[in-house]
Predict the 3D structure of the following.
Amino acid sequence: MRLTEIPQEELYQGSLGCSGCGSTLAVRLTLKALGRRAIFVVPAACISTVSCYFPQTPFRVPMLVMAFAATGAAISGMSAALKRQGKSDITVVGFAGDGGTVDIGLQSLSCALEGGRKFIYICYDNEAYMNTGVQRSGATPYGATTATTPGRHFEDKPKKDMMRIVAAHDIPYAATACVSYPQDYIDKVQRAAAIDGPTYIHVLCPCPPGWGYPTERTIEIGRMAVECGLWSLTELRDGRFVPTHTPRRRRDPSQYYAAQARFREFRSGQG
Ligand SMILES: Cc1ncc(C[n+]2csc(CCOP(=O)(O)OP(=O)(O)O)c2C)c(N)n1
Ligand code: SF4
């Protein structure tokens, strides 16, 4: 589906997410790509919090809030139940934050990937536990200050290489993406939905309050991450990650660090 053809209809509308939230944009794009025949499972995270204000919700498709560690188990079981009912046209989507994926939900995800059921697991990566006040996760990048890596005690390890963990499960489809590249992301969601087996997409979602930049710069910041070589858009093909987009211009990573308050101490340490 070309960007010019995406449906006008909003299936996620009226969220309480912050202005400029990359993660809520990822939900909207996912639903534009999948349409109404989708079910979302969301664990404890920003997306469940900003989507649950009973009796309303921004979701126009069924959505289940799951315990923090159990997204993989829920989507695997739900997929099995739908198959049993003969409902093969419904896409089950697990939509979990980086904390809920690379840390606390990892064993459940691993079991689901191994189990072979049909689903899309999407990790929306805002690079910290944002909902509870920006604590570091395994996906927090080197140099980032968070509530648990404060000030000059910034994160001293690189992001966990989640894609190598996922690839080790030998699943039929896995990809990395970024909300700043909507065509690339929509293509990947639709490719994953067409596969009769477990699929995984890891989408980078800039977060204005957690990363420390003005709300209107979300798309630009995501593009900078790719143009600076700090994030890449790839697909797993025959056991290897192949780029799906090569930036026309390369930027110095110092520009990316300078644009975000979370790298302030890291920058000053660099002199
Ligand atoms: C077992 C358990 N531990 C802790 C929490 C509290 N909690 C709710 S959301 C959240 C942060 C989630 O972080 P992440 O998965 O990265 O998603 P984000 O909030 O960044 O969207 C935490 C720690 C919880 N709900 N359940
Ligand atoms: S804290 Fe970040 S991820 Fe959470 S709703 Fe706000 S912008 Fe989105």
About this structure: The longest strand covers residues 91-97. The pocket of iron/sulfur cluster (ligand 2) is lined by residues 17-18, 21, 23, 46, 50, 126, 130, 207-210 (CB under 6 Å). Residues 15-269 form a domain with the Rossmann fold fold (CATH 3.40.50.970).
